[in-house]
Amino acid sequence: MLGTVATLTASKTYTGLGDLPHFNPDDDRDPLHPAVAGLRAAIKEADAVLVCTPEYAGGLPGSFKNLLDWTVGGGELYGKPVAWINASSVAAPTGGRDAHDSLRKVLTYAGARIVEEACVRIPVPRDAVADGQVVDPDLRGRIAVAVKRLREGV
């Protein structure tokens, strides 16, 4: 999956990234596309939002930026505690910094409350991941600390 929005209310992971239509401000009105309505409902129900996305070509992957574009007009992120963890490999030239800069800009426009203490860069080598899960205990511990900080920021 290219990006994940995890809600802490019931530890739900949003998996509908590929179902979202291309963002068009003319379509940001009722009735919303069902995938957009589902995304917004998941964010609205969440106590907080944790984002994990890789950096691609010096920024956010296009499909994940599309997801973020759909969050701006709905207001569900306004005042919502958010944080991010990088998904860059050890070899990534910026360690995800450019993606995070873009993410910060969009989340600020959406009015989200960024929990700085929970926004971390934890380079993850490919061999630390199996079946889409981080398996390295040290990395899992560092991720758990970031999640704890986000929960404390709620």
How is this structure best described in words?
By secondary structure, this protein is of the alpha/beta class. The protein has a single domain, classed as Flavodoxin domain (Rossmann fold), CATH 3.40.50. Helices cover 34% and strands 16% of the residues. It has 4 helices and 7 strands. It has helices at 34-45, 62-72, 97-109, 137-152, and strands at residues 4-7, 12-14, 49-53, 81-86, 113-114, 129-130, 133-134. The strands form 2 sheets. The protein has a 5-stranded mixed β-sheet with strand order 2-1-3-4-5, sandwiched between helices. A two-stranded antiparallel ribbon has the order 6-7. A hairpin with a 4-residue loop joins β1 (4-7) and β2. Its EC number is 1.-.-.-. GO terms for molecular function: oxidoreductase activity.
Notable features of this structure?
globular; single chain; Rossmann fold; oxidoreductase activity; 5-stranded mixed β-sheet; disordered N terminus; alpha/beta; FMN_Rdtase-like_dom; two-stranded antiparallel sheet; NAD(P)H-dependent oxidoreductase; 7 strands; EC 1.-.-.-; NAD(P)H-dep_reductase; 154 residues
